[in-house]
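Page 47, continued from p. 46.
Same chain as before, 140 aa.
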Amino acid sequence: MTVVRVPLVAALLGSLACVSVQPLRDPAQSIPKVAPQVVYVTYNDNSKIPVSQPHVSGDSLYGTWQGVNEPVATPLNMVRLIEAKQPNPKRTTAMVVGLAAVTAGAIWTFSLITKGTEWCDWAKNEMNQYQTAGQQCHPA
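Result:
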């Protein structure tokens, strides 16, 4: 069961790290290009709604108010900010570096465990080259 969970957790973390909600700089250009399923619209009065199936036509944003399933048609000059989930290269890089560090640490730890007395013998030899072989690393 645990063997199955590890890849699932890694996939979940990967999906979270690779995207984040970010502002769309030019909604008229970005929405067709990014093709988000949902955008988060902040109006000039700071009210905020999620709009699914968004598209821009002329100077207005159209879609469906998510959760309420009502049509939305909003002039872009009434909107302060439009955000959508987009790829986030910084978070992706941090996730890859973090997973690499965890993997390297796990491999190093596992190699120490499996080496057993070989590691102990080597360490003792490095610390004190004058001991005899019989005095080195005897398990209690």
